[in-house]
Amino acid sequence: MDTPGGGAPPVIRIESVSKNFGAVPAVAGVSLDITRGDFFCLVGASGSGKTTLLRLIAGFERPERGRILIDGEDMTNRPPYARPVNMMFQSYALFPHLSVADNVGFGLVEERRPRAEIRDRVAAALELFDMAGLSARKPHQLSGGQRQRVALARALVKKPKILLLDEPLAALDKKLREKAQLELVALRERVGITFVMVTHDQEEAMSMASHIALMRDGALCQVGTPRQLYDEPQSRFAADFFGVANLFDEAEGRTVMVRPEQIAVSRERPQRANVLAAALTNTVFLGNAYVCHFALDGGKVVQARLSPADMAALGALATGERVHLSWEPAAARVLTS
Ligand SMILES: Nc1ncnc2c1ncn2[C@@H]1O[C@H](COP(=O)(O)OP(=O)(O)OP(=O)(O)O)[C@@H](O)[C@H]1O
Ligand SMILES: [Mg+2]
């Protein structure tokens, strides 16, 4: 099989896949390779086709066009249970009347595995999630984070080649969610399989993924590493989706994009090519940085992000004060779409 860039063959190959629901093109002509052992994140606005693409990989949906290959084998017409894939759903309901151990072992019981094997594999899965002591509890006796770990253990106990996760952390509060993000990345490293995770949270994707695909209206907008998507967005949409983008329209539909941390603020006019006069409208202190908003003479708002050291060097800035905003030519990215 062709392997672009000469690397290992992809564990998942999606070839020109389309899926419509009536008149709605939920997934529209998507082609994508996912590398073995990747932590791959699908991001995009609500309704952009993330869950549908995951369900197509799992086999819960059949494409109208295109093929899906896993390890080079065509899976397009295989039912979900015959694919080396497991999916943790957007709402990962546990069985309320079953213990933690029975929830985790449910899929193995369905497969009619021998009892001793089920017992050993469930014990190993609970051990992996540090939940051995909770095996007899019922879901209502667990915290949100523990329930989420039971759902993950249930998805991994069948030893899939690929684990598909649809917004697995959405139910957790911010603190628990950040802890769970680190745990999931560490877990993927421990089990060594490929994770494909849907999230609509760009920060979550940036901090967890080795590669990200940004979806828009069922199509792929851009695929790359978190750094590529942040530093080299190929469209205004991508620039705006990941982090904050200051967009300056130029002639002939061109736009220059500059990130807030690339904008320097000074009272003196600097000797640089790109200088704009602006007035401070407000400052927000975030602990490790100051986020300042400035109004250009035409009214356009520009955001700059200053370190506490930059702010100290600048001296106190008053609201309404006029300053110069500038950036190095290399910090600007020209976008045409
Ligand atoms: N079973 C279905 N029947 C009809 N339309 C559907 C069905 N499932 C999804 N859709 C439509 O397909 C499009 C893509 O839906 P999908 O669930 O894949 O989006 P998503 O990116 O996962 O969104 P969210 O972030 O809200 O979960 C939407 O317009 C949705 O309304
Ligand atoms: Mg969804």
Task: Tell me what you see in this structure.
This protein has helices at 50-58, 100-110, 115-128, 144-156, 174-191, 202-208, 226-231, 236-241, 308-314; strands at residues 12-21, 24-34, 39-44, 65-70, 73-74, 85-88, 162-166, 194-198, 211-216, 219-224, 246-249, 255-258, 264-266, 274-285, 290-296, 301-306, 322-327, 333-335. With 337 residues, the chain is α+β, with helices and mostly antiparallel strands. The chain folds into two domains: 4-237, P-loop containing nucleotide triphosphate hydrolases (Rossmann fold), CATH 3.40.50.300; 245-335, OB fold (Dihydrolipoamide Acetyltransferase, E2P), CATH 2.40.50. Strands 6-7-8-3-9-10 form a six-stranded mixed beta sheet, with helices on both faces. Strands 13-17-14-15-16 form a five-stranded antiparallel beta sheet. A hairpin with a 2-residue loop joins strand 9 (211-216) and strand 10 (219-224). The mean pLDDT is 91. Bound molecules: adenosine-5'-triphosphate (ATP) and magnesium ion (MG). Magnesium ion (MG) binds at residues 50-51, 90, 166. Residues 50-51, 90, 166 line the site of magnesium ion.
> Level of helix content?
25-40%
| Relevant CATH superfamily of the largest domain | P-loop containing nucleotide triphosphate hydrolases
Number of domains: 2
| Category from helices, strands and their pairing | alpha+beta
What is the succession of H and E elements? EEEHEEEHHHEHEHEEHHEEEEEEHEE
Each distinct ligand: adenosine-5'-triphosphate, magnesium ion
CATH topology of the largest domain: Rossmann fold
Question: Strands of the largest sheet, in order across it?
Answer: 6-7-8-3-9-10
The proportion of strand residues reads 25-35%
Largest sheet: 6 strands, mixed
SS field, number of helical segments: 9
What global shape is seen? globular
Oligomer status:
single chain
Q: What's the architecture of the largest domain, going by CATH?
A: 3-Layer(aba) Sandwich
Runs with pLDDT <50, length 5+?
A: none
CATH class label of the largest domain? Alpha Beta
Computed Rg: 24 Å
State the end-to-end CA separation. 33 Å
